[in-house]
Specification:
Number of strands: 11
Helix content: 40-55%
CATH class of the largest domain: Alpha Beta
Number of helices: 11
Largest sheet: 7 strands, mixed
CATH architecture of the largest domain: 3-Layer(aba) Sandwich
Distance between the termini: 68 Å
Strand content: 15-25%
Structural class: alpha/beta
Mean pLDDT: 86
């Protein structure tokens, strides 16, 4: 048996776990891209360190001894967790060092605010490229992205974060449909419902001191980016984040109904992951995005 102060042979444990999983030294060697003799040496080192036999060999097959089963049960899951975490947090060696991937759950915000301004970020950063992917699903530990932009998702891995917008809601409609309306236009024009944001309309109604019986219920639309064309061209109203409809209001394509602005309680945040292959570019993007939002109508942080 080896001395008590000898370092734990971690490579030997990795080889042992492979043999236990494959039930074969040759298969374990292929799985680890090494030779059978190397795997066998690791196994001898580990058995010498532990002072016990780990396998009962029967020809080419290897069955775990009682002690081996006990040891495998104790070390397999922690070892797999370590390997998985190391792969997940490894900084990728990508060919394009001036490129990041942005993942966001805010499809309308991305299409109406972010994407139209990405050229400005690219120019500021010497031609940097931002790949944009949208998903409503919670990010997984192995998902490949550098920055997360979200309102409602959480992230637990190491990252820096920025609060970029505290959502404000407004009621908007086409100017030609509002110009002759006095008082409360929502009593004569239907308000669309956004099924992907079922919280918006009830939140706005409560803030306005109204109930669902005080308005005309309009069509149900899945996303704001689908509802906007209906409001621009049809006789209906929409409650939406002010930052999303702000450009249309600025260009006089939509008009905000007076005294209908209220906070929703939702905050937009950007996370720059520590495991990013380009952490400095990711942080620079989050800072740029925060500045961009402050220039948008309704984008000022209180």
């Amino acid at each position: 048996m080896t001395a008590d102060n000898q370092d734990v042979p971690l490579n030997a444990i990795r080889a042992f776990v492979a043999i236990a999983r494959e039930r074969s030294v040759s298969k374990a060697a292929r799985a680890l891209s090494t030779t059978q003799s190397s795997i066998s040496r690791h196994l001898l080192v580990l058995e010498d360190f532990l002072g016990a036999s780990l396998f009962e060999r029967r020809g080419r097959m290897s069955d775990l001894s009682d002690y081996g089963r006990l040891f495998a049960g104790a070390v397999t899951e922690p070892l797999e967790t370590i390997c998985f975490t190391a792969h997940r947090m490894r900084r990728r060696n990508v060919g394009d060092v001036n490129r990041i991937v942005l993942r966001t759950s805010l499809a309308t915000f991305a299409s109406h605010i972010l994407v139209p301004h990405l050229d400005a970020f690219s120019r500021d950063m010497g031609g940097a490229t931002v790949d944009v992917v949208t998903s409503l699903a919670a990010p997984g530990a192995s998902d490949r992205f550098d920055v997360l932009l979200t309102r409602d998702l959480s992230i637990t891995e190491p990252s820096d974060h920025w609060e970029i917008y505290r959502e404000q809601l407004v009621l908007v409609g086409a100017p030609e449909h509002l110009k002759n309306k006095t008082g409360s236009p929502f009593r004569s024009l239907p308000i669309l419902s956004i099924t992907s944001r079922p919280d918006i309309l009830p939140t706005w109604l409560r803030a306005m001191g109204l109930t669902s019986g005080d308005i005309i219920a309009g069509a149900r639309v899945e996303h704001h980016y689908l509802a906007l064309p209906a409001v621009l061209s049809g006789k209906c109203l929409l409650v939406a984040p002010e930052i999303v409809v702000g450009p249309y209001v600025r260009d006089s394509m939509l008009k905000v109904v007076d005294n209908t602005r209220t906070p929703s309680g939702m905050h937009y945040r950007a996370y720059a992951l520590d495991r990013s292959a380009n952490p400095e570019l990711s942080r620079a993007f989050c800072r740029w995005l925060s500045r961009l939002c402050r220039t948008m109508p309704g984008g000022e942080l209180p």
